[in-house]
Design a protein that fits this description.
This protein is an alpha/beta fold and about 400 residues long. About 35% of the residues lie in helices and about 15% in strands. It is built from eleven helices and 13 strands. It has a seven-stranded mixed sheet, with helices on both faces. Strands 10-11-13-12 form a four-stranded antiparallel sheet, with helices on one face. Bound molecules: pyridoxal-5'-phosphate (PLP). Pyridoxal-5'-phosphate binds near residues 127, 132, 157, 223 and 261.
Length: about 400
């Protein structure tokens, strides 16, 4: 039986060194896991060995040269180091006492990023599902909106937020480029208009000229928001700076480990007053949906320190260019049909003479995903992996489409 408190001879340094060794090695012994809660433990080192094959081999390799299926990027090692430090400290953003530097770091990172979106500030949360919920909650309680208007291509988190907040949801059809069709907008006087900058299926950007047309405008920039950091592509999101709230997933195009996203507000004081709770045990109010929260700003702070805005922008520009090169190859092929030019590095296409599902199935696992548009299944490629080799991806698609 493992003694508790732990055996003092247990050496943290050896354990973490072994974890790193296993992470970078290809040889992991497969060990069956118990089917019921184990009565006694294996000890930390043996547990580490037992899990290595399951955890390390049982996941997609997001940095592989053919990995272009989803919005999940490979993460840089500097973020792994910060995640390790965070886990070891287990600080809580709810209690500044446990996280004095992390609290400052979060404020610093938000002060760096908010101006790119015309926002005053905000907070980190576990993902854009929560960021969207928080933005729409502020719209309801700070501006008194009665309903949410969004496009049919909006992410399901908008519908989820409406259900939770008991707000009516009105879905507006999209145009042939997958953008909210302005001609079909209802009256917006008592509405929160949710515009998407980079829809999940096609990467389309809703017309951001509509920002300000409703009582509250929330921009779901979960995917494409980071393009604001690119001098080449920032203007695609022009108009976002007049929104009332903006959601951005850092664990997508800011290359962060999960769970990392930002909700930002144009009038921070107004929004925070609507979404804050005090409590006798809290030194400062709890702002937003989550209670206890990790120091997710630290890995992002490290990434910006390491790469600068320029380093992030170079990667995004490269990914946009990779997606363009895939679109060019699809357009040139007489065996493939392109749904439309990529707006934010997402390509949607299908073979002329077989099904998209069959094409995706014939390719290496994790290379492409599928999406359904107007009842039709299409193949989908998302450029989130700067290490992907698009020439190889094109070659494999061509070979699978004889
Ligand atoms: C446009 C859009 N909004 C919101 C979300 C939800 O983000 P998360 O998965 O970070 O909760 C996604 C996820 O793919 C998305 O594509």
């Amino acid at each position: 039986m493992t003694p508790y408190p732990p055996d003092p001879s247990f050496n943290t340094h050896d354990g973490l060194s072994r974890a790193l060794e296993l992470l970078t090695s290809r040889n992991h012994d497969s060990v069956d896991l118990p089917l019921t809660l184990p009565e006694s433990g294996l000890g930390d080192m043996r547990a580490l060995e037992a899990l290595s094959s399951h955890v390390l081999d049982g996941a997609a390799q997001l940095d592989s040269p053919t990995s272009v299926a989803h919005m999940d990027p490979p993460t840089p090692w500097i973020t792994w180091a910060m995640a390790l430090w965070n886990a070891s400290l287990n600080q809580n953003m709810l209690h500044e006492m446990t996280s004095p530097f992390a609290t400052q770091a979060e404020a610093l990172v938000l002060s760096w990023l908010s101006p790119y979106f015309g926002m005053q500030g905000g907070h980190f949360c576990a993902g854009s599902t929560i960021a969207n919920l928080t933005g729409i909650w502020a719209a309801r309680d700070a501006a008194g909106v009665k309903r949410v208007v969004t496009s049919e291509a909006a992410h399901l988190s908008i519908e989820k937020a409406c259900r939770l907040l008991r707000l009516e949801l009105v879905k507006v059809p999209v145009d042939p480029q997958g953008r909210l069709d302005c001609a079909q907008l209802p009256n917006l006087d008592d509405a929160c208009l949710v515009l998407t900058a980079g829809t999940t299926a096609t990467g389309s950007i809703d017309p951001l000229s509509l920002v300000g047309a409703a009582r509250w405008t929330h921009v779901d920039a979960a995917w494409a928001g980071p393009l604001r950091l690119s001098r080449t592509h920032s203007e695609r999101l022009n108009g976002i700076e007049a929104a009332d709230s903006v959601a951005v997933s850092a664990h997508k195009w800011l290359f962060q480990p999960k769970d990392s996203a930002l909700i930002m507000f144009r009038n921070l004081e107004l929004a925070n007053a609507a979404i804050s709770f005090g409590g006798s045990y809290l030194a400062s109010p709890n702002v937003g949906v989550q209670g206890s929260r990790s120091a997710a700003a630290i890995p992002l702070l490290a990434t910006f320190l390491a790469w600068g805005r320029e380093g992030v922008a170079q990667r995004l520009d490269h990914l946009m260019q990779m997606a363009d090169s895939l679109a060019d190859a699809i357009e040139k092929s007489d065996r493939l049909e392109l749904w439309g030019r990529p707006q934010t590095a997402i390509n949607v296409f299908r073979p002329m003479s077989s099904s998209a599902a069959a094409l995706v199935e014939a390719l290496p696992s994790g290379m492409l995903s599928t999406c359904v548009l107007e009842g039709q299944t299409w193949a989908r490629s998302v450029a989130a992996n700067p290490l992907a080799d698009m020439a190889l991806v094109v070659e494999k698609i061509r070979a699978a489409c004889p």
